[in-house]
Amino acid sequence: MKRLILLFIVALLTASFAIAQPPQYSIQGTKNLAPSSPRLTAVDPLVYAPPSQVIPPRPFLYTVDKNGLTITRFNDNTIVGTWPWPKPPEVIYTVLPNGSFTGLTPPAVWEPVAMTVSYPTETEIANRVKEIPDLTPPPTYVYVVMARSGYKWVSSDGSLRDTIAPMTDAATESAMLIQIDVSDPSFSASRDPANPVPPHVAGAILGHGSGQPVYDRSTGAVYVGNMPSNSLPTGLASFVSVVRRIPPEVAEVEAEVPGISIPVIRC
Q1: DSSP-derived pairing of the beta strands 201-205 and 176-181
Q2: Which residues of 172-184 are buried (b: 16+ CB within 10 A; e: fewer)?
Q3: Of 12, 84, 106, 168, which has the highest C-beta tally within 10 A?
């Protein structure tokens, strides 16, 4: 009887010791992205999506720095694509509040401060599960908030936030939201020797001191909070920027923006 009790105590102590053991951690994998110096990272929302022909998984990690965007594939930790931010004399096309569009001169130095990645909207998902589905994978965009834009918001009549002007003081300079199409993560179309097509990159002027963008899966809009923009009258200085997807038509090769009847930017 004493032996049974002793064996029970030993077993109990052994079990307790096993439970009390600290968790064991494996060495974390790393990836050298040189010459890039990653400042921000984001994971594609479809990284673990179930295999599908119409909405396939996207096992990608996006990193940005002052020079551009780098896309890494999780499966084998391989860099699949890179793209630089626009530099003068290039321009960044944007849609203005009145529905027209214009080219903006990029700032001398890009300063990314926040980012997010899009997800298929409810309409895009519905179009791919209906009886006759859309077999084209939905587009994917990376949105990056840049601290500097070189521009500021002003009011034409004191009652509307409706005009973009070159900034004259860093204290009133607006931030900029960059939208880049990463549907093709390797940007393979840009290397077509016969007809190279770069990814669509566009921008939207935000308020001053903008923060983290929030993506709305229902509408595809991006919401960005701002600090007060003191280049505007007091009643217009505080606002949240609401930026709808900037369509591919907003580019240098288009003379017009067909089909746009309401502003892409609502502030």
Answers
A1: antiparallel
A2: bbbbbbbbbbbbb
A3: 106
Residues with Cβ within 8 Å of residue 204, at least 6 apart in sequence = 94, 95, 176, 177, 179, 241, 243, 246, 264, 265
Q: How far apart are CA 74 and CA 115, in angstroms?
A: 19
Q: The tokens 């007091």 sit on which residue?
A: 234
Tokens of 155: 């009011």
Q: What is the pLDDT of residues 64-96, one digit of tens each?
A: 999 999 999 988 889 999 999 999 999 999 988
Residue type, 49: A
**Alpha-carbon span 75 to 165, nearest angstrom:** 45
**Which pTM value belongs to this model?**
0.81
Q: Which residue has the tokens 């919401």?
A: 223
